[in-house]
Amino acid sequence: VRRAQMQRGLPPGPTPFPVLGNLLQLQSGHLDRVLMELSSRWGPVFTVWLGPRPAVVLCGYTALRDALVLQADAFSGRGSMAVFERFTHGNGIAFSNGPRWRTLRNFALGALKEFGVGRRSIEERIQEEASCLLGEFQAIVGTPFDPRRLLDNAVSNVICSVVFGKRYDYGDPEFLRLLDLFSDNFRIMSSKWGEAYNIFPSFLDWIPGPHHRIFRNFQELRVFISEQIQQHRQLRQAREPRDFIDCFLDQMDEEQQDPESHFQDETLVMTTHNLFFGGTETTSTTLRYGLLIMLKYPEVAAKVQAELDAVIGRTRAPNLEDRARLPYTNAVLHEIQRFISVLPLGLPRALTRDTHLRSHFLRKGTFVIPLLVSAHRDPTQFKDPDHFNPTNFLDDRGEFQNNDAFMPFAPGKRMCLGAGLARSEIFLFFTAILQKFCLLSTESPASINLTPQCTGLGNVPPAFQLRLVAR
Ligand code: HEM
After folding, report:
1. What is the pairing mode between strands 360-362 and 454-455?
2. By the 8 A CB rule, do 377 and 36 touch?
3. The total number of structural domains that make up the chain
4. Which atom of ligand 1 is nearest to the CA of 349?
5. Residue from 345, 360, 351 nearest 45 by CA
6. Which protein family is it in (predicted)?
7. For residue 140, what are the contacts with CB-CB under 8 A and spacing of at least 6?
8. pLDDT, tens digit, for every residue of 354-403?
9. Residue-number span of the structural domain to which 24 is assigned
């Protein structure tokens, strides 16, 4: 294997075992931590073997920047992930490459914009949804509850209104079931062996394990999405799009005669799935983790509330323009995203051409793991990288201070397509909640453990209960 490594010009790394590669070593602790520890031995660019497949790991802000930003084109490919591959077959935005990816990504970005600045801005949609969420919260003031499903529902409704043209009532059993499928998939992929599901594509069907649940969940989601598309086909007026699906159907009509067209039935299903799943789980997990952090640090929540009171008051709903006038709140939200690193390993990239990185020659197709969490924990970039500390984003005068090493959405050409939407949602939901409610923990803040319940593709927070008190 070593010889193969050298022949392929791969950077050095820990010695792999036959077949399993470095898997056993990688499973010895939280994957992101193990990779960061390996980096202290092997440097910022090193190779690990995920079973029979080598992966080049980028660790630390500088390596990530040198690759993803300074060589944005070369690093803009998507590395394949077996569990997704089996479902997407390289279709949709997130798991395609080349011209198909570029076309679909630009189309989706355009459509998101269109439904943002069109009849009703996305900001207004989020504000309306936040007000529905507050209504649900109001009804359970004083009673301890797990906020997961309500947050999932609220966040998902925003992307649902863009993609499907409708929102779902809180507690709608059919919709809650779908949201549970998302959470289930995210959790399985974030479990100890979650990464292994991405390695052995040809074995996946044969080996038993929870990944079969991922496949069943995906299948159920596919049925739901296909039904939505079918309904759209029946009710739409051509060239009068109500939402993303209508836009896509219009484009399909337009390119009907083009045999090379990227706008096909299957592509619509996968692209819709990307937006629906991508638009729900990460954002909602971030908000949920953020609330848990506020329970642990009530003094931080109190400071956010004092700033909201002073700048907005308690009656007017927060809007996006307020963000610039709320430096402390803005710093807290950045710090939440930095501290939790909800996708610690980002999504894998693949090289679109041969390239040099540092002293290494890397071949086209090389699978790359951008270890985003390592930028967030980089001691050369943050004052207090290992703790939750909003001053990581504040200067000496208490003004908000941005930092290029903040990269929860990954930098470069392949960065998260929904970053703007996600940031708007996080800001508007979080401030709406704290403006109206105090959050109380059912246990003492000191005993709250912020360590993720599982870490893999994602960092999933431990389940918790909270009690709301109206302000
Ligand atoms: C806190 C919330 C979110 C986080 C932390 C997040 C993070 C990420 C990351 C790290 C990637 C991989 C980028 C790369 O290739 O390096 C990604 C991709 C993607 N995200 Fe997000 N995301 C969030 C919310 C959203 C939302 C709201 C949407 C819905 C519009 C979305 C849609 C996508 C899509 C479609 C991709 C694939 C992009 C591509 O391959 O070109 N994400 N996201």
Report:
1. unpaired
2. yes
3. 1
4. 15
5. 360
6. Belongs to the cytochrome P450 family.
7. 468
8. 999 998 999 999 999 999 999 999 999 999 999 999 999 999 999 999 99
9. 2-470
| CATH value at residue 193 | 1.10.630.10
- Specify the ligand 1 atom closest to the Cα of 407: 10
Q: Which ranges in 312-418 belong to alpha helices (H)?
A: 327-340, 372-376
CB 277 within 8 A of CB 196: no
Which residue owns the Cα nearest ligand 1 atom 41? Answer: 414
Q: Is the pTM of this model over 0.95?
A: yes
Question: How would you classify residue 241: left for phi > 0, otherwise alpha for psi between -120 and 50, otherwise beta?
Answer: beta
Q: Given ligand 1 and candidates 157, 340, 409, which is best to mutate, with the most ligand atoms within 8 Å of its CB?
A: 409
Q: Which residue among 93, 285, 416 has the greatest number of ligand 1 atoms within 8 angstroms of its CB, and so is best to mutate?
A: 416
The per-residue pLDDT for range 184-233, each reduced to its tens digit, is: 999 988 887 676 666 666 667 777 888 888 889 999 999 999 999 999 99
Task: Name the DSSP letter for residue 442.
Answer: S
| Residues with a CB atom less than 6 Å from ligand 1 | 78, 93-94, 105, 159, 274-275, 278-279, 282-283, 286, 342-343, 346-347, 370, 408-410, 414-418, 421-422
416 is in an annotated binding site: yes
